[in-house]
């Protein structure tokens, strides 16, 4: 099981050169309200109630530097790419997504816990907006830390513990159908707005149900399934961040806030779609070969 879709090794250093300044700039943007003087573009003829005519792109620049930098660091080839590094990369990807959603679940629970303070959650996560900002890059950061930790830990070994998944029954069934029901409900509500009070709650549950689906075993588990999982997870991460980077440039204010909220579900959703597509394609090819063999 070797990793695919990796950048050349030297891109890791480019990633550091982009990511570190991006984090520094992002800190000043978030906590000091810093904007690069003159780094503006006129997007509208006049100011509106919520939007300015001149848009400063400092925060967009910071986010782009951070994400591109982390992607290059995370997915650049190491000196020795083999079966072990493929397994380590799969382990780190799954661990990163799991820990990130663990934070999300804990934050969600704490959001509903009555507090004497004005803020809830983790303190510096004042609300979902704050959480979604950190969620834009935290999965990549966790992956990098986990991946290089495992590389160091296993530098003299040739095996790594397999990733533990939820059992096929009942978790895959629960995660799959709960996700489908919620997605259908949200689509219907988008087309025909429903006057319901639990809409926000359904969106809160959706990332968890998708994660249960993604982390459940298939009926048959083998090396091909693991390799397909790794490929699907990498594709999901790449597509997710390409969408995010494009949205970072094209959407502003409340529109980008919607993108941030959707970012909570895009990685597991894209993973599931790609993973199931690859399995379905393989099954069709196998069935076609059997049919051809029998015909001969």
UniProtKB/TrEMBL annotation:
This is Uncharacterized protein. The keyword Membrane applies. It comes from Mucilaginibacter gracilis. The keyword Oxidoreductase does not apply. Keywords: Membrane, Transmembrane, Transmembrane helix. The lineage of its organism: Bacteria, Pseudomonadati, Bacteroidota, Sphingobacteriia, Sphingobacteriales. The chain crosses the membrane at residues 12-31, 61-78, 90-113, 133-152, 173-192, 198-215, 235-253, 259-277.
């Amino acid at each position: 099981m070797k990793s695919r879709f990796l950048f050349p090794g030297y891109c890791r250093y480019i990633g550091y050169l982009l990511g570190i300044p991006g984090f520094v700039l992002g800190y000043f943007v978030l906590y000091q309200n810093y904007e690069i003087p003159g780094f503006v573009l006129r997007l509208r003829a006049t100011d509106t109630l919520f939007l300015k005519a001149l848009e400063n792109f400092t925060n967009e620049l910071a986010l782009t530097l951070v994400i591109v930098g982390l992607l290059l660091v995370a997915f650049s080839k190491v000196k020795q790419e083999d079966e072990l590094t493929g397994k380590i990369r799969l382990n780190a990807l799954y661990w990163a997504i799991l820990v990130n959603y663990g934070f999300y679940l804990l934050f969600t629970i704490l959001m509903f816990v009555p507090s004497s303070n004005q803020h809830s959650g983790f303190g510096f996560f004042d609300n979902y907006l704050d959480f979604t900002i950190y969620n834009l890059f935290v999965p990549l950061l966790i992956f990098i830390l986990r991946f290089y930790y495992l590389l160091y830990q296993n530098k003299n070994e040739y095996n790594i513990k397999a990733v533990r998944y939820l059992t096929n029954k009942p978790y895959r069934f629960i995660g799959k159908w709960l996700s489908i029901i919620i997605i259908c409900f949200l689509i219907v509500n988008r087309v025909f707005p429903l006057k319901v009070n639990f809409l926000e709650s359904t969106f809160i549950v959706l990332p968890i149900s998708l994660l249960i689906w993604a982390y459940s075993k298939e009926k048959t588990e083998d090396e091909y399934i693991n390799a397909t999982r790794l490929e699907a997870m990498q594709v999901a991460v790449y597509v997710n961040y390409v969408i995010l980077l494009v949205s970072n440039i094209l959407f502003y204010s409340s529109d980008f806030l919607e993108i941030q909220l959707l970012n909570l579900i895009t990685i597991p959703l894209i993973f599931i779609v790609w993973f199931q597509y690859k399995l379905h394609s393989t099954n069709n090819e196998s069935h076609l070969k059997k049919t051809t063999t029998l015909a001969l």
